[in-house]
Amino acid sequence: HLGPQRVDRSVDSVCPFCGVGCLVTYHVRDEKIVSVEGRAGPANAGRLCVKGRFGFDYVHHPERLTQPLVRRAGVPKDPALLGTPRDWREVFEPVGWDEALERATAPLRALRAQHGPAALAGFGSAKGSNEEAYLFQKLVRTVFGSNNVDHCTRLCHASSVAALLEGVGSGAVSNPVADVAEAELILVIGSNPTANHPVAATWMKNAARRGARIVLADPRVTDLARHAWRVLPFKADSDVALLNALLHTIVEEGLVNEAFVRERAANVEALRAHVRDFSPEAMAPVCGIAAETLREVARAYATARSAIILWGMGVSQHVHGTDNVRCLIALATLTGQIGRPGTGLHPLRGQNNVQGASDAGLIPMMFPNYQRVDRPEAHAWFEAFWGAQLDDKPGATVVEILNRALAPTEDPQKVRGMYIMGENPAMSDPDLHHARAALAALDHLVVQDIFLTETAWLADVVLPASAWPEKTGTVSNTDRMVQMGRRALNPPGDARPDLWIVQQMGQRLGLYAPKPGAATGATGWEYPGPESGVAAVFDEMRTAMQAAIGGITWERLGAASTVTYPCLTPEDPGQPVVFTERFPTPSGRVQLVPAGLVPAAERPDAEYPLVLITGRQLEHWHTGSMTRRSQVLDALEPEATASVHGDDLAAWGLAPGDWAELRSRRGSVRVRLRRDDGTPRGSVFLPFAYAEAAANLLTHAALDPFGKIPEFKYCAVALRPAPA
Ligand code: SF4
């Protein structure tokens, strides 16, 4: 991999892209990363995908932010200009850190003083470290004074977490991906793992090669289908119909693991009664899968020695996302396919640290380690621990916060000021015209990032931050593995580590003096030690999250690189498989919740006859701010394409490579067409990484009522040819 190149140093870290959490080594020469090598981590065993191996040069991109910026007086925040090339000097002027921090914080202090805590909100990031997420949510809670803090988990697996917390008492996975090696049947639903979790997909393919049966259930027939025993290309939006038909078969054909449900489940009879109406024969026309296939899959899943379910955002990003996951929990529970190696429930987490950021409390309804903010004991504990007065009501979520930014001026809940660290809602939120108007309407917006993202273009103050290889910290992958990344480079120019910036913001915003005797050693927002006090922050976090990571010390992580939680004592090796004896619910049992059919918020009609499905590609990561600035990745996928079935292309008289305009009730984009016969007829698949053809200009902002996740996987669009 290195050829004849000279290397000055090699530094061990973690891949910054997806939740698989592959361990890497950065090879550095002349203060530049020259190559990345996979390490023998438990999640990757030396393997890397194209993003992990080649997507590193964004770090050295000339567009990196290297100095703090403030908006020039009188330059309007114009969302209409986003996605078009502009010279940043026309909009911003560089300033020193002192001035930038003062201009970042003074208006936030004033807004809070004038309008109260509800006027402020913060978005943290699933791309930062656990320590950054922890400190950011602590800043919002203790200094802004509300729970208006969230991050992109709201856009990916919030509904999964809502259902899992309700059903099994824990929002994380029950078994690691690697457990597919022990599974006889692997149900992959609403997921395209070869594109989105590529190294995890290799374990699935290996399992198929040694005889495991993969069932791939997804409206799009994707690459993993080549390795599948059965492929179920069900109609988009009919997940509950399909899953209830499987549950019906299991109940009707006597395949319930009665001993397991007697001991370990609650509300079983209500579920049995509910699924009686969902026979495969009745559901086949609804979901588009033959009744006999549904029965065959249900039997195979129920009777397998061990069967595991892995799912992605095809399940979660619906107005019925929580219901979809309730059905998956019921499947695993009725059949006893949980609590053992090779079984269980695995929501494939998207970003490298979306698991850890949620664990650290970067969500509006929970303190760290999922302690509800409205539970008096938890509230009192954190007030004492942080030495601050805390709000005891859940805050607003991502989409709700931006809705509140557009509330009438007399609304006491109106959000007027925001601090956004490492997120790009001007690309990632649904219905972007609305979301961008909301960001532009804020009285004051502070954005901390490594590039002038679409969100940063709308900011009043931009704080230049550090890329992942430029800092030391921990991240938690989809398998609940806490892993350490180490600094391989210094940030460029005047850019600073995020942890340093958050502490500076906290110090200047210090509206609450810590109470005397507070348990934390971090009073005054100064964490001592090297690397911006990261070890001290981790130590405080460990105290706040004893029941999950109490046994993981900074030193232990430094030596081991990876420790799986729950890990309660220094001797505890960590628990990759959980729920072996009881579930962490109040009763110790799974709480089963029946789910009915809830249609998508916006279905196709004569004017908008097609279904839009948004998602990711192998080469590009989320809003594209990193991967589109990586030479190899950008060369592989340089422009936005919309994938449609070949028969649809022929019917419309179009060919691959032709230009088309896609329109929804909310916006339009111009893209090239790509033939993909895995895309169901009557549908269009559009990746959301391209600012010049932002898929979320089209999407619908309807929310799942429990997880508050938008319905990114379904809305109505029209397509017409466009000039080249
Ligand atoms: Fe990185 Fe995910 Fe690829 Fe691994 S599978 S190299 S973590 S993007």
Can you describe what's shown?
The protein is an alpha/beta fold and 724 residues long. 31% of the residues lie in helices and 17% in strands. The strands form 7 sheets. It has a 7-stranded mixed beta sheet, sandwiched between helices. A 6-stranded mixed beta sheet has the order 24-26-25-28-23-27. It has a 5-stranded parallel beta sheet with strand order 10-9-8-12-13. Helix 3 runs parallel beside helix 20. The site of iron/sulfur cluster has 14 residues, from helix 1 and helix 7.
Radius of gyration: 24 Å
Helical fraction? 25-40%
The assigned structural class equals alpha/beta
Beta strands, count: 28
**Order of strands across the widest beta sheet?**
5-4-18-17-16-6-7
- What oligomeric arrangement do these chains adopt? single chain
Ligands bound here? Answer: iron/sulfur cluster
Helix segment tally: 25
What portion of residues belong to β-strands?
15-25%
Strand count, sense and closure of the main sheet? 7 strands, mixed
Mean pLDDT: 95
Give me a quick take on this structure:
Keywords: 4Fe-4S, Iron, Iron-sulfur, Metal-binding, Oxidoreductase, Repeat. This protein is of the alpha/beta class and 724 residues long.
Provide the fold topology.
Layout: E1 9-14, E2 23-29, E3 32-38, H1 50-54, E4 69-71, E5 92-94, H2 97-115, E6 120-123, H3 130-144, E7 149-150, H4 153-156, H5 158-167, E8 185-189, H6 193-196, H7 198-209, E9 213-217, E10 230-232, H8 239-252, H9 258-264, E11 265-266, H10 268-275, H11 280-287, H12 291-303, E12 307-311, H13 313-316, H14 321-334, E13 344-347, H15 354-359, E14 366-367, E15 371-372, H16 376-386, H17 398-405, E16 417-421, H18 425-428, H19 432-441, E17 444-449, E18 461-464, E19 473-476, E20 481-485, H20 498-509, H21 530-544, H22 546-549, H23 554-560, E21 562-564, E22 590-591, E23 610-615, H24 631-636, E24 641-644, H25 646-651, E25 659-663, E26 668-675, E27 683-687, E28 715-721
Parallel strand pairs: 6-7, 6-16, 8-9, 8-12, 9-10, 11-22, 12-13, 16-17, 17-18, 23-27, 24-26
Antiparallel strand pairs: 1-2, 2-3, 4-5, 4-18, 14-15, 19-20, 20-21, 23-28, 25-26, 25-28
Helix pairs in contact: 2-20, 3-20, 3-21, 5-14, 8-11, 8-12, 8-14, 11-12, 17-19
The structure holds iron/sulfur cluster (SF4).
Iron/sulfur cluster binds next to helix 1 and helix 7.
